[in-house]
């Protein structure tokens, strides 16, 4: 059976790109790392790495092994953090992925509450969107996501805590040729952009299919809401947008929401965590803080 010390070695080789560089990273001799790699491969019965011009690269089987190794490493780290935090040591790391709505209305207050109890825990906040954000949660690389909740078909292995529901509007530039449009059918031929990556396209399409309309094909996608707003203002571009952020956006950007007859499907914002791994005290408290801030903010 593969040993725990092999996990660190495999991850170091993958990160460094060669056995020689990994040995320096680990503070071990190259022959020792090579021997440990051969032991791991022998135990698993597969080649994990293969030679390449620049060093070594993962085999197809190796990709599976490394994905599991990252989960194991993450769980070992969480085990130590869990024990330390229960002993009263407010240390550790927390990785959180947030949507634009969460970043604007929930995260700030949550961090303030959280840091009063866990001042020594490092919190990494990253932006992200469904469905791509949920894979790292399942793999243990992200502790929780605050954003649109997963669809039922994508909820396996996840625990979901509802926060708030927001209507979705369509925005365009304040002087756009579409500014007086009153029906989605009138703007389907316009140029659309989408918040997130193309992996979110099915969620955009679903909103139009639900109204019996052929969905537009966004020509631009962006993870940055600031980039989206800067592109939409003073343009004819169209984009779906959370209504809860509209007032703030309209005061800073030259945009406007279309007064459409057809309501778009709303978005349910939630905290999404792994249902298969127990949260550390810090993760659980961060979740509790976000729930309380959301209750105070939205009622």
Automatic annotation (TrEMBL):
Pfam families found in the cross-reference section:
HTH_1, LysR_substrate
**Presence of keyword Isomerase:** no
From the Swiss-Prot or TrEMBL record, what is one GO molecular function term? DNA binding
List the GO terms this entry assigns under cellular component, sorted alphabetically. cytosol
Sorted UniProt keywords: DNA-binding, Transcription, Transcription regulation
Concerning PROSITE patterns, the annotation shows:
HTH_LYSR (PS50931)
Q: Which domain of life is it from?
A: Bacteria
Signal peptide residues are none
Query: Where's the HTH lysR-type domain?
Result: 2-59
Give the protein family.
Answer: Belongs to the LysR transcriptional regulatory family.
Name recorded for this polypeptide: LysR family transcriptional regulator
């Amino acid at each position: 059976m593969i040993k725990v010390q092999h996990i660190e070695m495999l991850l170091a080789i993958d990160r460094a790109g060669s056995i020689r560089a990994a040995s320096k990273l680990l503070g071990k001799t190259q022959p020792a790392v090579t021997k440990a790699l051969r032991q791991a491969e022998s135990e698993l019965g597969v080649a994990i790495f293969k030679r390449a011009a620049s060093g070594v690269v993962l085999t197809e089987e190796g990709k599976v092994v490394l994905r599991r190794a990252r989960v194991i490493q993450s769980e070992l780290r969480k085990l130590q953090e869990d024990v330390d935090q229960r002993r009263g040591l407010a240390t550790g790391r927390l990785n959180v992925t947030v949507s634009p709505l969460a970043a604007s209305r929930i995260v700030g207050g949550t961090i303030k509450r959280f840091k009063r109890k866990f001042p020594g825990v490092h919190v990494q906040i990253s932006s992200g969107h469904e469905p791509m954000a949920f894979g790292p949660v399942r793999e243990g690389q992200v502790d929780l996501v605050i954003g649109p909740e997963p669809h039922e078909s994508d909820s396996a292995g996840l625990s979901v805590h509802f926060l708030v529901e927001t209507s979705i509007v369509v925005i365009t530039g304040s002087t756009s040729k579409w500014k007086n449009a009153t029906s989605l059918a009138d703007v389907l031929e316009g140029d659309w952009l989408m918040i997130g990556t193309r992996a979110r396209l099915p969620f955009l399409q679903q909103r139009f299919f639900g109204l019996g309309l052929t969905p537009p094909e966004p020509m631009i996608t962006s993870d940055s809401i600031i980039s989206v707003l800067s592109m939409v203002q003073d343009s004819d571009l169209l984009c779906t947008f959370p209504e809860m952020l509209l007032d703030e956006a309209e005061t800073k950007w030259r945009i406007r929401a279309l007064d459409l007859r057809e309501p778009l499907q709303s978005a349910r914002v939630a905290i999404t965590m792994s249902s298969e791994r127990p949260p550390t005290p810090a993760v659980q408290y961060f979740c509790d803080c976000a729930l309380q801030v959301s209750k105070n903010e939205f009622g």
